[in-house]
From TrEMBL:
The lineage of its organism: Eukaryota, Metazoa, Chordata, Craniata, Vertebrata. One of its GO terms (cellular component) is peroxisome. Belongs to the enoyl-CoA hydratase/isomerase family. In the C-terminal section; belongs to the 3-hydroxyacyl-CoA dehydrogenase family. This is Peroxisomal bifunctional enzyme. PANTHER family: 3-HYDROXYACYL-COA DEHYROGENASE (PTHR23309), PEROXISOMAL BIFUNCTIONAL ENZYME (PTHR23309:SF49). It comes from the Eukaryota. Coiled coil: none annotated. GO terms for molecular function: (3S)-3-hydroxyacyl-CoA dehydrogenase (NAD+) activity; delta(3)-delta(2)-enoyl-CoA isomerase activity; enoyl-CoA hydratase activity. It catalyses: (3S)-hydroxyhexanoyl-CoA = (2E)-hexenoyl-CoA + H2O; (3E)-hexenoyl-CoA = (2E)-hexenoyl-CoA; a (3Z)-enoyl-CoA = a 4-saturated (2E)-enoyl-CoA; (2E)-hexadecenedioyl-CoA + H2O = (3S)-hydroxyhexadecanedioyl-CoA.
């Protein structure tokens, strides 16, 4: 939603400007990182406010380490947010993917560029063109995530953020 995008942008800008902040951790609520955009909003009139692609670029450009704590799902724009982060930790039960292609939409926040750079063209093409969801274990093997945990993902992400 626009509210979430605006809060993410504001939080990132505040963190970057605050010298006492050494790293940033991004997580979702209720055991889900992000299911991406609500496709019903695509048919609404042009809206004003934050857009996802510039926010993902803002995450990527941050001078401070940004760690994604992926629980549940990171799909579509949610995965694109995670791709903008410098590090990604996923819960063992997490699932990731770019399913919007199954309804004829291309990932719109530069996921089609970031994913191949991170995991290589063949693996990225498979994920981008099929829309399939991958497990955290497969994501680790591909290099999409840096670590898979069975316990508290947020605590693990904070630990990594403190370490880097």
């Amino acid at each position: 939603s626009l509210t979430v995008l605006q809060a993410l942008e504001d939080g990132l800008k505040r963190a970057d400007a605050d010298p006492s902040v050494k790293a940033v951790m991004i997580c979702g609520e209720n055991g889900k990182f992000s299911g991406g955009a609500d496709i019903r909003g695509f048919s609404s009139p042009k809206r004003h406010g934050a857009a996802l692609a510039p926010i993902v670029s803002l995450i990527e450009r941050s001078g401070k380490p940004v760690v994604a704590a992926i629980e549940g799902i990171a799909l579509g724009g949610g995965l694109e947010v995670a791709l903008g982060c410098h590090y990604r930790i996923a819960h063992v039960k997490a699932r990731m993917g770019l399913p919007e292609v199954t309804i004829g939409l291309l990932p719109g926040a530069e996921g089609t560029q970031r994913l191949p750079r991170l995991i290589g063209v063949p693996a990225a093409l498979d994920i981008i063109t099929t829309g399939r969801h991958i497990s955290a274990t497969e994501a680790l093997k591909l290099g999409l995530v840096d670590e898979v945990v069975e316990e508290n993902t947020v605590e693990a992400a904070i630990h990594l953020a403190n370490k880097v």
